[in-house]
Here is the input.
Amino acid sequence: MGFHVLFIVAGIVCGASGQGPLLVDSPRNVVLSWSVGNGSLTMSVSMDAGGWVGVAFSPDGNMVGSHAIIGWPSGVSGNIQEYWLQSQQPNGVVPVSDPILTGASITVSGATMTMNFTRPLEHLGRPITLSGMQTMLWAMNMQTHGLVRHDFRGAFQIDLSSGASAATSARTQLIAAHGVLMWFAFCVCFPLGAMSARYLTHSNLRWFHAHRVLQVTGTLLMLVAFALAISYVQQAAGSHFATSHPLAGLCTIACMFANFLAGLSRPHKESPWRRSWFLFHSTIGRCAFIWGPLMALSGILTYQSLFGDSILPLLYVYVVVTPIIVLIAITRETLRSRATRPSGVATPQ
Here is the structure.
């Protein structure tokens, strides 16, 4: 996707068999260091101090089926255990019946929490891959100790021999596609559709056809993007309304879809409901003209806060295209206010 940037990092050698530190997630300072020797993997994971921290070895990039090590500060060495992730619900995080971690500890120093552990490469029938990319997951809760839902999470692939890493989770591509489609719907299709209805009514029925095509296209893009967002949250085992952006987005989508249905059920111009219908339809359209670009900007910033990827490419597009559309609207509104409205405007029957 246009603004999904693969995060490729080379590890820094810190010993004959050690690698790191590797910055996995910039916004929350998730850093990974490790060493391999004598058939075991020794790993250190540090991130912003909070409730709990966890890493998991995944066979396919999904949460379910992964082997996780989760811990939180408690006493001298902390509370660290191994778990099977059998479902996306808290009761599906099942402790391993015969754990064999060694050197497990979790410490807090200032604003940083660090978890250390050693596990065999061959463990519980889930060997760690040394000859290629090993898929790993990370998650954290910022406030609560214990097995409660994570606030942030991510996935990445790592070569434990060379230290090369790539944050290539397909889920991040889902949310990137969601953002691109929503931006095109709310910053291009819907504004241009509203402008065609307001400023092109002198061109017989061409304004109506342009308005209809743009609004239908924007609505379809919006619904596809909405489905991608739902799929992303379900795959990542997250909360649909963990931040204000999804809740505001759901309200926005509901209003725009209601407006789309209103457009399909337009009453005849002689109907007593015509005035009320026009007031509803035009008000939602005007609000979307302002609210849509703000939601798009909120989505860009939310993506950056979740994944730490560069958002400059999309910001450049946003900063260039959105003001152009706004300037066109301002110019047309100024010209419209100075001109005399032509008589005999064609209205679709």
